[in-house]
Amino acid sequence: VQRRGGDLPRWRSRVDGARQAVAWAFRSVTAEPPSAVLDDVLRRLPAQDVGMDLIGEEAAPARPPKDRLRWLKITVMVLLAALVLGVGAWTVWSQFTRPGIVHRVDQSEDLFTTSENPARDGGTAQAFLSRDQNSGYVTVSGMPQLPDGQAYQVWLYPDDGTAPASLGTFDANGFGEPVTFRGLDRFAAVGITVEPSSGSEVPTTDTLVGVDLDPTAHTGPRYGGRPSTN
């Protein structure tokens, strides 16, 4: 017994030395574990099957809170951008398009409607003005047809006496829509002349019909009036 008891520590010392030698000899050798090791271990633990779905390759990981916050910010920014674009589009429509100007003038509290001014060779012109909107428009109807190569040209005459600004050329059928303008505070009158169909830089003929754009110069102003239906 004493001899066997004395051999046991010696035997264990040799085993430990052998293990250390093997570990030192293979210290630089690395190896990847087989890919099926985890599946084999899990299959041997039936009590753990409840968690298999949580680690499956097809299971979608929960989105971290930071990702949800980032998507929320992106959504809010997109909505704000859409709102800004909508407001900008409405502003452009209201300020610069013909329907927008007509709408604003017609809805203004200080809308002034002139009388229907007769043209020299037939037809009439009528103005609708709003100083609050600093805008106005002119309706023209009943103008006679012109020979080929000629057109009606509408002019805005500044109140400082400088050269008039053209609002475009029209044929007799081209006055179906109102002729709109902005900057009422800078202009004194609207006039229509006959010019070449390509238009002129300044009027070259006598005015066929003119409309005064100063509401105070008219007798019996009709504030809040609406376009004539005649």
Description:
The chain has helices at 2-25, 37-43, 65-96, 98-107; strands at 112-113, 117-118, 124-130, 135-141, 150-158, 165-170, 179-182, 187-196, 209-212. With 230 residues, it is α+β, with helices and mostly antiparallel strands. The chain has a domain at 106-217: Immunoglobulin-like. A hairpin with a 5-residue loop joins strand 2 (117-118) and strand 3 (124-130). The chain is rod-shaped, with a radius of gyration of 45 Å. Residues 218-230 have low confidence and may be disordered.
Oligomer: single chain
Do you know the CATH topology of the domain at 106-217? Answer: Immunoglobulin-like
- Largest sheet data: 5 strands, antiparallel
* Estimated radius of gyration: 45 Å
* Helix-strand string: HHHHEEEEEEEEE
Sum up the overall morphology in one term: rod-shaped
Number of strands: 9
Structural class of the secondary structure composition? alpha+beta
- Tell me which CATH architecture of the domain at 106-217 applies here: Sandwich
Which class of the domain at 106-217 in CATH terms?
Answer: Mainly Beta
Number of helices: 4
Note poorly predicted spans.
218-230
Helix amount, in percent? Answer: 25-40%
Terminal CA distance: 135 Å
What portion of the residues fall into strands of 2 or more residues? 15-25%
Chain-averaged pLDDT: 77
Summarize the structure.
By secondary structure, the protein is α+β, with helices and mostly antiparallel strands.
How does the SSE layout of this entry go?
Layout: H1 2-25, H2 37-43, H3 65-96, H4 98-107, E1 112-113, E2 117-118, E3 124-130, E4 135-141, E5 150-158, E6 165-170, E7 179-182, E8 187-196, E9 209-212
Antiparallel strand pairs: 1-3, 2-3, 3-4, 4-7, 5-6, 5-8, 8-9
